[in-house]
Amino acid sequence: MNTPQQPDPRDRPARLSVGVVGAGRVGPALAASLQLAGHRPVAVSGVSDASVRRAALLLPDVPVVTPAQVMERADLVLLTVPDDALPGLIEGLAETGAVRPGQLVAHTSGRYGARVLDPVLRAGGLPLALHPAMTFTGTPVDVQRLAGCSFGVTAPDELRLAAEALVIEMGGEPEWIAEESRPLYHAALALGANHLVTLVAEAMELLRAAGVEAPDRMLGPLLGAALDNALRSGDAALTGPVARGDAGTVAAHVAELRKHAPGTVAGYLAMARATADRALAHGLLKPELAEDLLGVLADGGSGNGGSGNGAAS
Fold first, then answer.
1. Are 241 and 249 in contact (CB under 8 A)?
2. Calpha distance 117→106 (Å, rounded)
3. Which of 99, 150, 186, 309 has the fewest CB atoms in 10 Å of its CB?
4. Higher per-residue pLDDT: 188 or 299
């Protein structure tokens, strides 16, 4: 039996013309994914050479124009600028009459919800906050990564279905975030993703200093397993010298870091204290061992915390 061939998305009539204001790493990828769903990118704005190159790579043949021209040409406008620039951009577009009644205007900021788009709403536009919980590279791989990516969605109740439908068409999974919870939501993502990059980069530098030739190869399986365990089990996945209460090992770590990479000491101590608190609360760290460990962390590892022998994981 022959399996019916699925229609090519390019053969379907475009439902929305899509414009992007701010051709950073996010906007062109989202527009490209909407194009795969049958929508039609018609305009993009970008100032820097890098922005123009990204637009040409991900949205070939789509003209690079001014923000006002993007607003004029598109039914759905994606505002993909840095968080701090977003309120001023929105106010400027509304004040100049660039927003059309019935026009969908979506921003991709994690920090803000739909309220920042109130000037758009007053001008008759339809405000959406669609934040992809993903890190972007500015290359075509980003479009593939959107498959299964969660989006933090905030919009007026009457636009909720439209917002969720757009996310699904981009291959994402909508997750409704209340307006007042957006800052906390964004802080959680930054804590998990942005700080993870810093931790991994520092770990690789320290391994190189210790003579490891391929720190990425060494860390890959370890960090992959740690992440998987953490996502599955939460605090129950904690391991290592802090969770075990090996105060001597932790003191030795801090002494070595002070000698070879003093800039990492404050971060190590802060994360060790947070790990100790969670391990203690979860019953992994024995209270009788916690006292010596917390003493080491309190004095920055300069004290004599015992003779532990631990492995790092």
1. yes
2. 8
3. 309
4. 188
